Each structure stands twice: as C-alpha cells, then as structure tokens.
Amino acid sequence: MAESKKIVIIGSGAAAYTAGIYAARANLEPLIFGGVAMGGQLMITSDVENFPGFPEPVAGPELMERMQKQVQRLGVKIVPEYVTKADLSRRPFYAETSEGTAASAQALIVATGANAKWLDIESEKRLMGHGVSACATCDGFFFKGKEVVVVGGGDTAMEEATFLTNFAAKVTVVHRRDQLRASQIMQDRAKKNPKIAFVWDSGIDEILGAEQVEGVRLKNLKTGAKIELKCGGVFMAIGHQPTVGFLNGQLKLDEAGYIATDDRTRTSVEGVFAAGDVMDHRYRQAITAAGAGCKAAIEAERWLAEQGHG
What we know:
This protein is of the alpha/beta class. The protein has helices spanning 14-25, 60-73, 122-126, 136-139, 155-164, 184-192, 286-306, and strands at 3-10, 31-33, 47-48, 58-59, 77-79, 83-87, 93-97, 102-110, 114-116, 132-133, 147-151, 170-174, 196-199, 202-208, 215-220, 226-230, 233-236, 240-242, 272-274. A hairpin with a 4-residue loop joins strand 7 (93-97) and strand 8. Helix 1 (14-25) packs parallel to helix 7 (286-306) and helix 5 (155-164) runs parallel beside helix 6. It is elongated. The two termini are 24 Å apart.
C-alpha cells in the first residue's frame, strides 16, 4: 500500500536536500526517494571551494553527507531507492521504486539531476576526481599553470575551454570531427584565444597516469595514428543527460531534454515542481541547485495551502 504524503521529493543532490529542509521546516513531513547512489554529481567531485560557508575546501562527498544529516535531523524520511514509475495524470500523484516501495503525494518535486556523458573507459573512471572532471567552473581553479585537455566540440566544450584559460597555461580541445558544432560566436571566441589549441578528427584512447592525470593517448579516427600528449587534467564536455526517463513523457521538456519550468520552478503539470540540474542546463552548480530546491519547496508549500493541504 502506498504511503500517503503531502509532498514527495525525488532525488538526493543539493536541490533535493534543500527542498527537503524547507519542506520539513514548513511541517509538510516530506518523503525523499533518494536513489541508491545518493548525493548527485558532487559525489564525484574532489574539493569544493565555491559553496558559501566553507572557508576551507570541502570534499564533495562530505558536503553531501552534511546536507543529508541536516535533512535527517529535521526528521525527513529518506528512502535509498530509485523511482522507476510515476503517475502524474491525477492527484494524488503516485511514485513507485524499483523495490516496490510506493507513495502518493499531493505535491511532487523532481530533483533527479543530470549525469555528465563520459567516454566509458577504465582510465577515465579510475582517475575521476584525480584530474578527470566534467565541470570546469567547479574544478578549473585547481589547474592553475597546468596544461589541460577538453573533450568535445559544442558550445559547452567552447565555454569550458575558454573558462579554463583563466587558470591553465594551455588548453587543448580534442574533437572527433574536423569542425566544431558550437555556435559561431563561441567558435570565434575560442579560436582567437592564444591559449587554446585544437586536435581534430581524434578521440581519447586512454588517460595516462597512475594516481593523477599525467597525459592522454589520442587516436586519429581517420588514420588510426596514436600520439601522446602531456597534461595535468582532462575535462569531459560532451554533454549531460537529465534523469527524466521514469517520467515517461508526462512533463514538458525543453529542446535540450530538460524539464521545462517557469521562473517559479513550476512544471507543465500543476502541483509538480522541478529543481536542480534536471531543469537547468546553463549553470549546473551546487549553489544554484540548492537555490532552486529552496524555491521549489516554498512554491510547493504555497500551492498546497491554496489547495487546502497546508
């Protein structure tokens, strides 16, 4: 039998935990379906230096652990299971996990995040957080004076490469094709930057280094020729995939596949709100995700009050 709640939050990153904090403080007794691998993208981030309130760097997993403890201190129930089924066609809404745990809710906050797309090679997984990153804004500061590689050819790759020139001595963009997919203005900006170089028609065959990135082995996809390039960091910029599959098309998405919301985090279904990277492909920062989680909880609280469920 499904547990009946005023509000259910799906996700376990900065957006979901912040939404849980605000919903709990509003006496809404929220339930969080956090998934098995709780903590979101910050779980694969080494040091975080740009989250307010931490004068010293804090490890991403530690930051998420602190958020989780804060949520639990407020009495929020967290179920570490993935939601695989949801019915938004009528209220109360319905959510069910892969383990068969179910809940109904008068309001729903979707904060399931987005996963960076990776090359899926062994050396990438092994060195993740040790020179391999998918967020220049998060980690660029740690590569001062180093040579780094950016993988990709779209707007995200050009933004990452250009941003990294603020810290790195040199940025090499590795792209599978012989021309970029980025908008012309982004291409021009990157090509005019003296710190940015390009390697065309190539992909990463292996990331080199035992405990820290020391270089990459590149393979020319046309000739098969391989070369090694020394570098201290590798940034993946081949896109993100928002976690929306379980919704089965019940919420309107934007052209990039993220949940479409208004400036108050409201989605296309009344009573359903979205926060964090699942609806934000522009900023993708812990602090903006937390802010959106706050907004979503406040909006949900007000909406529930209007419906007589406050």
